[in-house]
Amino acid sequence: MNFSSKLLEDAVAEFAKLPGVGQKTALRLVLHLLAREKEEVARFSTAVNRLRNEIQFCSTCHNISDSAICEICSSPKRDHSLVCVVEDTRDVMAIENTNQYNGVYHVLGGLISPMDGVGPSDLQVDTLVERLKDGEVKETIFALSATMEGDTTIFYLHKRLKQFDINISTIARGIAFGGELEYVDEITLGRSIVTRVPYQNSLS
Questions:
Q1: Which of 25, 68, 117, 149 could form a disulfide with 111 if both were Cys (CB 3.0 to 4.6 A apart)?
Q2: Distance (Å, rounded) from C-alpha 151 to C-alpha 204?
């Protein structure tokens, strides 16, 4: 693709690094920004810079947050005895959108995947174990994608958590195997949380 400006070319190259954005889409986005008022583009740039420089991760659940402890973990209206274990922030957002869950979360930051070189030590597993030691948590729900990596992670977590006197459950499998949690419709996901089953039962 030939560019009439090095500045234009550099901007397109940066946008094209975003997932799912090719050069043609990147060019369209850049030209769109050029057509906007300078103040509007400045707000866009400021928002991105603040996102990268000021964003935090909750010290309790590891969800993306504006403060050291996220709004969910700090809310007295949430059931802190119930912890839903998810892969990442997108899954927290998906479950919150169902309006069927009032507990708190624990974001692992990924799934165990030996093929990709991701092991238990790369995830927020130890901090989950620490959260269970004070006895406040009565149930953990494994809400992980129905994939080989998700099942491997659940199996490992169950081995680590079964030492505690808590209920360990997993979301009901109304979700097809191989399905990513973030893409499941809200009704199905909400029902799978409500109709969760003990993890041991899901093995049979």
A1: 149
A2: 14
Q: List % helix, strand, coil for the chain (3-state, nearest 5).
A: 45, 15, 40
Rounded alpha-carbon distances, angstroms, from residue 35 to 15, 22, 24, 72, 145: 16, 20, 17, 39, 41
Q: What is the pLDDT of residues 25-55, one digit of tens each?
A: 999 999 999 999 999 999 999 999 999 999 9
Token match 């234009």: residue? 8
pLDDT number for residue 25: 96
One CATH from 3.40.50.1240, 3.40.50.150, 3.40.1360.10, 3.40.1190.20 for 76-202: 3.40.1360.10
Q: What are the residue boundaries of the structural domains of the chain, listed by start? A: 6-54, 76-202
Residues paired with residue 142 on neighbouring β-strands, in sequence order:
85, 170
Q: Please state whether the predicted TM-score (pTM) of the whole model is above 0.70.
A: yes
Confidence of residue 182 (pLDDT cuts 50, 70, 90): low
Token pair listed for 159? 């081995």
CA distances to 27, 91, 153 from 88, rounded to whole Å, are 30, 6, 13
189 pLDDT above the threshold of 80: no
Residue carrying the six token digits 């009032």: 102
| CA–CA separation, 5 and 37 (whole Å) | 20
